[in-house]
Amino acid sequence: MPPTSAYTHVPYMRAHVRRSSQLVGRAVAVLIFFTEVEYLLQIHYGPTVCQWLDTVCGTDAVPSYEINPTTVDCLWKLMKRNQKQEKVISFVIDDLRQKAAEYSMEATRIGNVLSNIGLSCGSLSKSGTASLSTLVNMALVLHTKDASDTSLMLAISELYLTRFRQSESQSLEEKVLSELLAKTKTAFLKDSMLKKTLQGLDDDARQQDPEIEKKAKQAAFLRAKSKEYRKVINQLQEKLKSSGVDSTLYHSTLLRRSEELQTSRDKLHSLRAKLDSYQSLPPDLALAKVKVEEARRELVSIFGQDPVYGGGLL
Questions:
Q1: Could you list the residue ranges forming a coiled coil in this record (predicted)?
Q2: For residues 103 and 96, what is the distance between their CA atoms, to the nearest angstrom?
Q3: The pTM is what?
Q4: C-alpha to C-alpha distance for 90 and 83, rounded to whole angstroms
Q5: Helices (H) and strands (E) in the chain, counts
Q6: CA torsion sign, 13 to 19 to 22 to 26?
Q7: 169: number of CA atoms within 13 Å, CB side?
Q8: Residue extents of the structural domains in the chain
Q9: In degrees rounded to 5, what are phi and psi of residue 29?
């Protein structure tokens, strides 16, 4: 509940008065700032802008506008641009007036020359007047400085050159267009092929979905069984360890010993074959040499040469 005593309201009132005084001070500072800005604008830009607006509007009244930094700055920039444009236009007007005066003087001179030799526009025939008009129109169309043969021929040559360039540009554009059309056709064909391939893949995927799902279930079942068997193996190994079974009875040990036994049997077989070859000999060394010599002679008689010493045919 808020305090109800008069003494308890004093701190709140003081804080409220302090905040109010701060807000009033800020508002006064902002007002002073904008007043100074407006004063400066009126001093530096105001008179010039106002005079320009009076000049532009003439007898009409100047529309009312808000005087602030943004508005005055925009009007100042617009005034500068307008003055610059008016100066350029005045230069163009002066140049056109000078050219008009020159053309008028030239026309007067040519008229005097024609009158001195007894020629005038009225003395020409209809065909002559038509030819003269055609010549003038041609000079105007070709933008020549005069109607002399040289100027007209140069203008016509330039026109032919421009036409030739345009035809080359047109042929180049047609070539590029044909290439683009060919590429577009190829792209359409590839797009159709890709769509057919994608459709075939979708059909295959739909057909293989049951088989894939079946294999996925089998794989999950096998994983579960493998996990179960691994768990059972670990339990059985723990039981074997706890029961004190000799490690020599393990499958891995028996398998290793079986391999070692098979290796020993192979070695024993080779040794036994060698021993059998020695057992067929007589116990006496001289008799053994005689028997070896008989065997050698028998081989020589069979193969035609000594297989041991490489002798020739007998």
A1: 219-281
A2: 10
A3: 0.32
A4: 10
A5: 7, 0
A6: negative
A7: 6
A8: 10-120, 252-280, 285-314
A9: -65, -45
